[in-house]
Amino acid sequence: SLLFAVLHFAVPAMAALHSLCVFSSIASPQLLGQSLHPLPSANASPFPYRTPFLSIRSGAYTDELIKTAKTIASPGRGILAMDESNATCGKRLASIGLENIEANRQAYRQLLVTAPGLGQYISGAILFEETLYQSTTEGKRFVESLQEEKIVPGIKVDKGLVPLAGSDDESWCQGLDGLASRSAEYYRQGARFAKWRTVISIPSGPSELAVQEAAWGLARYAAISQDNGLVPIVEPEILLDGDHGIDRTFEVAQKVWNEVFYFLAKNNVMFEGILLKPSMVTPGADCKDKATPEQVAEFTLKLLKRRVPPAVPGIMFLSGGQSEMEATLNLNAMNQAPNPWHVSFSYARALQNTVLKTWKGQPENVAAAQTALLIRAKANSLAQLGKYSAEGESEEAKAGMFVKGYSY
Questions:
Q1: Of the listed 156, 170, 259, 277, which one is catalytic?
Q2: Beta-carbon neighbour count of residue 173 at 10 Å?
Q3: Distance CA 325, CA 394 (A)
Q4: Above pLDDT 70, what percent of the chain?
């Protein structure tokens, strides 16, 4: 009949138009990172708003990833970040009058990894690629020295920041090419977690382009790392550069973490097998209104509770140019009450500044420098437990270390 003929051609056409509209809506940049309810289609079930079945990621390393993440996120311990590139390590050595050669880099890193008793306060150590393959002067691999202290070796896997075309002087992090094969090799060498650092600049916007590029890169890296047995540290660092207040940092951080977890989920990343390395929510370095540790803790914990699922085992904060004492005080303030996650540290300069200046490149100062490292590690261990006191801290520990546009 005529009616049958009309319905025969009209219904599929309307269904196709409807599907196109749904696709266009989902692909809209305005909706990226938002929660979307599936719309009914021509082939919809009798329950048109039921969320479709999501496949659960299951890999060969699932149990190991969860165990590694829990080991790193253990009470009273945190991460020693010693993954500075050779260029950045050279700047540190130059500050004490040493030439940037492998022998000097090896000597300094040996000082760090062989500090006696370090494993009491440190659960993981992030290494640069050169360091992963280095050994002590006695021939013991650095990886073995760490493992003897029950410290999990980690590895920096990104290839650094480069300008982001089409942005306002922003950057993106490179290194996805070849990451799978490199990660597999790092695993064979003893690494069990990885780090990828990308940055967000508030004075430069941040633009939607930069935020989404950072979030997507972190998600792809995290998925590749888990596929190769490495627990990924997810680190979108919101730089301290700028004169903005703490409210502006909080606003930007919410947007960044919204996109990060959206894309982590899209890439089937297992949240129980990751660690986060965020910036604390603080005012910009040039802001006249400084925040107290209690204010930093209030804003930071509010951000985490709004954005980070409790399935994530650990939040390992970066210091981001804060003084040694400031980073420890802020961490301590965040641990005055129980949190859904292990709230701890992944510090580089905030653990090493006094150590480097004590060492001065002199063999006779190694023991004193290792003692300085243990003092800072213990202070942050106490802060993770909410038991730190700044009484008796040195003037060196109070000195700020902010560097504009800091890069590893």
A1: 277
A2: 22
A3: 9
A4: 82
Q: Which of 235, 237, 259, 324 is catalytic?
A: 235
Q: Helix count (H) and strand count (E) of the chain?
A: 14, 10
Q: What residues contact residue 237 under an 8 Å CB cut-off, 6+ apart? A: 197, 198, 199, 200, 277, 278, 279, 318, 320
3-state secondary structure (DSSP) of residue 206: coil
pLDDT given for residue 20 in this prediction: 42
Q: Which of 193, 236, 195 is nearest to 216 (CA)?
A: 236
Pair 152, 146: CB distance under 8 Å? yes
Q: How many other C-beta atoms are found inside a 10 Å radius of the C-beta of residue 168?
A: 13
Q: Give the percent of the chain with pLDDT over 90.
A: 77
CA 152 – CA 170 distance, rounded (Å): 33
Neighbours of 20 (CB within 10 A): 10
24-58 confidence digits (pLDDT tens): 443 444 434 443 334 444 444 443 433 444 445 55
Amino acid at 131: T
Mean pLDDT of 67-94: 96
Instruction: Quote the mean pLDDT of the chain.
Output: 86
Compute φ and ψ for 9, nearest 5 degrees: -95, -30
Mark whether 235 is an active-site residue. Answer: yes
pLDDT at 394: 61
Task: Please give the structure tokens belonging to residue 282.
Answer: 């603080």
Given a cut of 80, is residue 288 above it in pLDDT?
yes
Q: For residue 114, what pLDDT band results from cuts at 50, 70 and 90?
A: very high
Query: What's the average model confidence in pLDDT over 271-280?
Result: 97
For the question of residue 364 being annotated catalytic, the response is no
pLDDT at 405: 55
Query: Residue 114: left if φ>0, alpha if ψ -120 to 50, beta else—which one?
Result: alpha
DSSP lists the bridge partners of residue 314 as: 275, 342
Q: Are the C-beta atoms of 191 and 213 separated by less than 8 Å?
A: no
Q: How far is CA 133 from CA 144, 186, 404, in A?
A: 11, 10, 31
For residue 117, the one-letter residue type is G
- In 30-43, which positions are buried (b, 16+ CB within 10 angstroms) versus exposed (e)? eebbeeeeeeeeee
What is the total residue count of the chain?
Answer: 408
Distance CA 319, CA 282 (A): 11
